[in-house]
Design a protein that fits this description.
alpha/beta; TIM Barrel; eight-stranded parallel sheet; 11 helices; binds zinc ion; metal-binding; metal ion binding; TatD-like; hydrolase activity, acting on ester bonds
Length: 244
């Protein structure tokens, strides 16, 4: 089985049916992240009919300022979701300073709950890698999954020391930093992700379907000097271990 540990199924629109067929045909276990309440309810519904789809509830840092005053109402979702995400901080793409305190407030709320319910988190760290590391330690989080990391290498090392897992995304083969990361991170801590249809588009102009995960596994195997089948097996085992 393939692992897509960070996707956004709500972004496929009229191509959702085709996307789910691909997930079924290629057997891709999918962590279906949400950005807000609406996208969570959509993936939660999809998961009822499909055991390959795992719904994840989170408020994305881009939406934090719109939700920071209503956090208590999310408690039921946080309690029921198998994994919390996508949550995090983004000081890189979000340029308006006034939004940062909202991001921090939302993230601390989710981290507090993640600790309380012993949940795994799926984290966005863009431009805020140090702050995320600090908060992970402060809230004593259980093995977070760091999504599409592109920050400083010294923080990456500290996140690894903490026990974090890293999802390798669609820029493998296009990014020198990602290549260096894949070589550095032990295979036991590597997962794979496609991050919705627009991530690949951003990289090479093509619409991204979940079966792009096969290319990612193949490229990881080349960098790790193992066979594609071995890489697939190891990533699947990492995923299984993570939830034990
Ligand atoms: Zn995402």
């Amino acid at each position: 089985m393939y692992i897509d540990a960070h996707n956004h199924l709500d972004l496929y629109g009229d191509k959702l049916h085709k996307t789910i067929n691909i997930i079924n045909k290629k057997k891709i276990k999918t962590l279906a992240c949400s950005m807000d309440e609406k996208s969570y309810l959509l993936v939660k519904n999809l998961s009822k009919e499909n055991s390959l789809i795992v719904p994840c509830f989170g408020i994305h840092p881009w939406n934090a300022h719109k939700n920071s005053n209503y956090l208590e109402r999310f408690d039921t979702y946080i309690k029921e979701t198998p994994i919390i995400g996508e949550i995090g901080l983004d000081f890189h793409w979000v340029l308006e300073d006034y939004k940062y305190p909202h991001q921090i407030k939302v993230l601390e709320y989710f981290f507090k709950k993640a600790n309380e319910y012993n949940k795994i988190t799926n984290l966005h760290t863009k431009g805020a890698e140090y702050e995320i590391l600090k908060l992970i330690k402060q809230y004593n989080l259980r093995t977070p999954i760091i999504h599409w990391y592109s920050g400083p290498f010294d923080i990456l090392k500290k996140l690894l020391d903490y026990g974090c897992y890293f999802t390798i995304s669609v820029d493998i083969g296009y990014s020198k930093i990602t290549e260096e990361m894949v070589k550095y991170i032990p295979i036991e801590r590597i997962l794979t992700e496609t991050d919705g249809p627009t991530a690949l588009k951003w990289i090479n102009g093509k619409y991204g379907y979940p079966d792009y995960i096969i290319n990612i596994v193949e490229k990881i195997s080349t960098l790790k000097k193992i066979t594609g089948e071995e890489a697939k097996e190891k990533i699947y085992n990492n995923f299984k271990l993570l939830f034990k």
